Amino acid sequence: MNSPLPDVALTETSAALMPLDWVGMQGIELPLQIDEPGQTRGVHARADVQVDLADPGVKGIHMSRLYRLLDAFAAQHALTPQTLATLLDAMVASHADCHSTQARLQLGFSLLCRRPALVTAGLSGWKSYPVTVKALWQGARLQLDVAVEVTYSSTCPCSAALSRQLIEEAFRARFAGQGTVDPAQVAVWLRENASFATPHSQRSVACVQVRIPEQARRLDLMALIDTTEAALGTPVQTAVKRADEQAFARLNGQHLMYVEDAARKIQQALEGRFAASSVSVRHLESLHPHDAVAQTSNYLT
Question: H or E segment at 229?
Answer without folding.
Answer: helix 221-232
